[in-house]
Amino acid sequence: MVHSKCMGNILKISLLFLLFSFSGKAQTSVEDTLTASYRYNKARALYIKSLHSKSSMHLNKLGAEFRDKLNFFGDSTVLATREGALKWIKENLERTDFETYEAAVNEYEAIGVASANQVKDNSEFYDYIKYCALYHKEYSLLPDVCLDVHSSNPELLDLYKKYE
To answer: Which spans in the chain are helix H?
Structure first.
């Protein structure tokens, strides 16, 4: 009789333990989802704010002008590096709208300076993205936020046109 009572108590304790451990995991999962959602929304808001900065508009304007002068309709991986882009320009200068190779290099360099300024001026956004990647392993947050913002707000792609 004592043996069956003891087994019953062990079974009850085990069931309670299992119940609490599952409810804790469910709670943690809900909390993780909520905090991940919070981080995503914060990153999204910071990105939209950064798009409205003068440095972002300046960078986007320079980039658009450069792309227009390239007259490039090929595999964009060719232009992915400085060396690749400048090599393509040198080999295809007559197809571009650049007056000289040096003018193209100068514009390319100006984009690099504008890009560094844009990152510095919008450090709150970039620091937050880095924080989320390092401490929450949210490595795709940057591309996810950018794609979401640009697909749901395509007018933001043209903000630079208002920049003088």
So the answer is: 2-51, 54-70, 82-91, 101-121, 123-136, 141-152
Range 58-65, long-range pairs (CB < 8 A, 24+ positions)? 58/114, 58/117, 58/118, 58/160, 58/163, 59/111, 59/114, 59/115, 59/117, 59/118, 59/160, 60/159, 60/160, 60/163, 61/160, 61/161, 61/163, 62/107, 62/110, 62/111, 62/114, 63/111, 64/160, 65/107
Q: What is the CA radius of gyration of the chain?
A: 27
Tokens of 152: 């749901």
pLDDT (tens digit per residue) in 142-162: 999 999 999 999 998 888 887
Q: What pTM was estimated for this model as a whole?
A: 0.74
Predicted local distance difference test score (pLDDT) of residue 161: 86
